[in-house]
Fold Galactokinase.
Amino acid sequence: MTELRSSVTTGFTSRFGREAHGLWSAPGRVNLIGEHTDYNEGYVFPFAINRRTLIGLAPREDAVLRVASSHAPAAVEIRLDELTPDALHGWSAYPLGVAWALGQFGAPLAELHGADIYIESEVPIGAGLSSSAAIECAVAAALNDVWGLGLDRRTLARVGQLAENRAVGAPTGIMDQSASLLGEADAGVFLDCRSLDAEVIPLGFDAAGLELLIIDTRVSHSHATGGYASRRAACEAGAAAMGVSALRDLHPGDLPRAEQLLDEETFRRVRHVVTEDQRVLDTVRTLREEGPRAIGALLDASHASMRDDFEISCPELDLAVDAARGAGAIGARMTGGGFGGAAIALVPRELVAPISAAVLGAFADAGYATPTLFTVRAAAGAAREL
Ligand code: GAF
């Protein structure tokens, strides 16, 4: 983090020719369990990770917002009164979309001063660890502070989601931003995506001698394209056919009726969501009653459901999960929106090296690109750093 701080400080000065007035950061997230349940108003159990996006910001005298990033050669600028989703394109739609979305939540954009913002991130892009939410939440936290808006963290999560839905055009749910804003060290965020009630629950991985291993397949995904939206549409069609406002209202006991009513594919989509909601509840209960070593079968079942019923896995993710499990992982599953990105494996600390070697060997044997492996810890949510 110290290195990232000095890099952002220097980057800000070289892009804008003056010093940043403050630094804010927000983490990426890993989802322990509860996939594609958030937009169905169900349950999720992610945690914020110790990989962060850091931004430097300095207010401006005029009403212009300028954003620059270590990944982009040129800054993008726009007047605050010109902010609309249609005016935003490419990477800058994430930070600028947040400014627009704050306006939708009451920020008087026409009366506010602009700002210069510089962004750097250590959250891998496209790995399913929500580099996008990390940008959105860092910017939301910063503008909320400098504009004196006083919005609470749950509202800021909705701001980030609105930016992603309307400015970026990805029809995603509320999970990633909630994890990035509400996360705490060594704990998961158990979120009811209907009420937005969140409970921070200790994970106990460290005390149990466990590590969470990320296997980034480097198969890249984007949620602004087809697969994610079509899964969401299938869920909404399934809910409508079953006469409920969201799949959250169905329970495993409703599945026989769903099977009779729905076509075969929609039924499998619905079965994933309904059983996944139940697995989140079971994971939280098991964690509390028996500790983290007992949740492996739930992680495994979640992966099977995404592979077979929701069909959002890919051969690389399946191989990562199988190889990790075969080498002694307690449980493993793909994480995030799917169609690429990363798998997670819950592993005894002493097996991190042999499991990593087994995964790398399996990928080499299959002729797949070499995955990136690293462990993550649950970390604190968005914060002002300086
Ligand atoms: C992506 C989305 F952004 C989340 O809202 C969630 O739907 C997830 O995919 C799947 O669980 O990360």
Observations:
- Residues 31, 35-36, 38-39, 130, 172-173, 175-176, 223, 336-337 surround 2-deoxy-2-fluoro-alpha-D-galactopyranose (CB under 6 Å).
- The radius of gyration is 21 Å.
- The mean pLDDT is 97.
